[in-house]
Amino acid sequence: MRRDAVREYLASALWAMPTCAVVVAIIAGAGLSAVQLDTTSPFAVLLFQGTSDDARNLLIGIASTMVTVIAVVLGLTVVALQLASTQFSPRLLRNFLRDIPNQVTLSAFVATFAYSTAGLYTVGIAAGQRTQDYPRLAVSGALLLLFVSMVMLVFFAHHLSHSIQVDQVMKGVEKATLKVIARSFVPGDPGIRMPDPPPGATALLVPQSGYVQAFHAEALVEVLASRGLTALMVPMIGRHVVAGSPLAWVWETTGERVRPLVPDGGTELRRALAQSVRIGYERTLEQDVAFGIRQLADVASKALSPAINDPYTANQAVDHLGSILAALSLRQHGPQVVADAQGTVRLHVPGRDFAYLVDLALGQVRRYGANEPRVVRALLRVCRELVWFGDAAHHAVVRRYVETLMSDVTRLVAQPADREPLLAEGAALLQAFDVADGTSDAGDAGS
């Protein structure tokens, strides 16, 4: 858990990769300074041909140029972050900080600066005196880094202009969310009934306020099994918890009675819980599918606000949300139970159901855009695509959403010329769900 937390932090730390680049540049400079090439060597063409004063002036010029370039790059990055925060959603800032091309570009610039500045200690100076001998290959390396930095500057301008485009932003969120679904999603069981903590159960308290970022049950289940205990997790992934509130309930059932833990019996459990649950000050996409959906829903909601009034951007966000909902329709949602090696259920974990995820993705868009026919058609288009995914239970959730949407259309769209085609399209979509579920039932009966 600690290793994953460090990896997650470093991925969004804008200083981590540039710091490593500075260290590598200084080591490379020291290594090249020790290389002496003979004038008869075939690599002699790589050597800088000027005097030591020329080489020193070159390094000073490169270092000063890089300072200016770094200032420009950081300024442009801040502008991009501010634009993304105000126009799209403040929850997208973390995606920009995790952008690898931005980190690589900044690393190239600071590496060139560090390489050139470090060379000033050795080029043209020896024991405090001027000298004509200097590491010519190392100076040639500074020239090479200068050309690399210029190429990276052009690439950075290209990448930045594309990265703040709304299409690129939303596609990035969709890809990241689908990756979470493919790698980290744990299927639930809608039929599981979460137990209530019995009287006498012991509460394991939240150590610090924040958001539940990740959950790995192995360490906790192992301790629960060794002591014959049962536990119930209180919050779901992505929920905010307050220090001192229950994070989990633990009890030991002996016959008809629930035995409380001995006074020091919770120490090992608290340690295992700390190794299993990570709480941070922000939500992350590591295991939180709902956070990716929230980002796209925020973009759609802001686009439909009176200040921006951009229905087409909302339609695009709905299209990306449709791809995520289609992937979620192929999986079961709800609470989970975790058993030990002997098959005994030791841990109950709450989970979001499909109805919650559909409302999170499309509910705000329906409430803010039900009076705009273009937005309604986009919502109906996504729901129509979901006919081909999931089972009857998933279809029932989408069907209820369509019925609510049609009720809003009837109430909010004033012009019959706008309202009637939408109602007809909605009625046809509901019929398509009936046909799909009927076909599914017939296929199940035949098999």
TrEMBL record:
Listed transmembrane segments: 12-37, 57-83, 104-125, 137-157
Record bears the keyword Transcription regulation: no
Cleaved signal peptide residues: none
Keyword Metal-binding: no
Keywords, comma-separated and alphabetical: Membrane, Transmembrane, Transmembrane helix
Superkingdom field: Bacteria
Entry protein name: Membrane protein
The organism of origin for this protein: Arthrobacter bambusae
